[in-house]
UniProtKB/TrEMBL annotation:
Identification of the protein by name: DUF3500 domain-containing protein
Residues spanning the signal sequence: 1-20
Database matches in InterPro entries: DUF3500 (IPR021889)
Pfam families assigned: DUF3500
UniProt keywords, alphabetically: Signal
Length: 339
């Protein structure tokens, strides 16, 4: 059954146009395919506190409906919805990350009936009523995958917090040996780091010890008060382009509409206000912990590879103005529902 779900992922993301108005249509198609009991499990008000829950570790108490509980047609509809928000490459990464749960299950010698590691334990939750004239949102979340989307009528407001992780970062044995799901996020960062001049490198590396986890964690409000590292204007023109290329990897996890909005916001906030920060080892080798961050007035991107002998990656994108749709969107929703 799960193999069929993977085929849906690879097939249908190639067919889905990245249009904002598609999102509500695809969400409603998914809802119509659910039974009444499944709808009750999946649908929540937009102003519920549940919408702000954000977790990227294995959990048994997630709200919503899991992939395991869906039939093939429902799974197809779920992936069609996901394809309205994420790029084809990002959906493939989600698929690959889900499959890594099978690798972990084998590595941890878990019995067949143990579902702590389970590629079907990923949940969809819908908040509000999807339509072209409503405020609503949805979340797709499980181990090492967490995306939160918000829409205000026909406008896509936010797709964050957005988390992707990989454990193992590099599969060392078994049928998936050498698979490296987050290879691009790792390689481009090290390419930039190793290209820096001695003066640039001295500013960029703030400590030789990497933090044990992404600093923003799973908090509702992402905040790192004091930026560190090297500022965009302090980089050479070539290294500025490399930094922008690294940002693009994260931004283009989303479909073009989302990505264009995020890039416009970054530019409006001023490229000169971007910081690039490195902590931990500067050697690109297994077993050497490292961390980097890109921070601006409206965005924080984090990458951490420290756990499991530095073979376990966490990455996150936080929109400091619009995470979970932003407070302003919630105010608009409440105002519309008190008239």
């Amino acid at each position: 059954m799960y193999r069929s779900f993977l085929l849906f992922i690879l097939t249908f993301t190639c067919l889905i146009p990245a249009k904002a108005q598609d999102m509500a249509d695809k969400a409603n198609h998914f809802i119509r395919l659910l039974s009444k009991a499944q709808q009750a499990q999946t649908l929540f008000p937009f102003d519920t506190g549940e919408r702000y829950h954000f977790a990227y570790v294995p959990r048994d108490d997630r709200k919503g409906i899991s992939v395991n509980e869906l039939n093939p047609a429902q799974r197809q509809a779920l992936m069609a919805l996901l394809g309205t928000a994420l790029s084809e490459g990002a959906v493939k990464k989600v698929n690959d990350i889900m499959q890594l749960d099978l690798v972990l299950k084998e590595l941890e010698h878990r019995p067949e009936n143990d579902h702590y590691r389970d590629p079907g334990k990923y949940f969809l939750t819908i908040f509000g009523v999807p339509a072209a004239n409503t405020i609503w949102g949805w979340r797709f979340e499980g181990h090492h995958v967490a995306f939160n989307f918000s829409a205000d009528k026909k406008e896509l407001v936010a797709g964050t917090p957005a988390f992707l992780g990989a454990n193992p970062a590099i599969v060392l044995e078994g049928p998936q040996k050498d698979k490296e799901v987050m290879k691009e996020e790792t390689k481009l960062a090290f390419d930039l780091l190793h290209a820096l001049s001695p003066g640039e490198l001295q500013k960029t590396v703030v400590t030789t010890k990497a933090p044990a986890e992404i600093i923003t964690g799973d908090r509702r409000n992402a905040l790192i008060e004091h930026p560190e590292g090297i500022r965009y204007p302090e980089l050479s023109a070539a290294h500025q382009q490399m930094l922008l290329g690294l940002i693009s990897v994260y931004v283009h996890r989303f479909t073009k509409l989302f990505a264009d909005k995020m890039l416009k916001d970054i530019q409006q906030d001023g490229l000169d206000n971007l910081w690039f920060t490195w902590a931990g080892s500067t050697e690109h080798e297994l077993g050497k912990p490292c961390y980097y961050r890109i921070q601006g007035p409206g965005i924080i991107i984090e990458y951490d590879n420290t756990q499991n002998n530095a073979n376990h990656i966490h990455t996150v994108v936080r929109d400091l103005k619009n995470d979970f749709g932003g407070d302003m969107l919630l105010e608009h929703y409440r105002a519309a529902h008190t008239k």
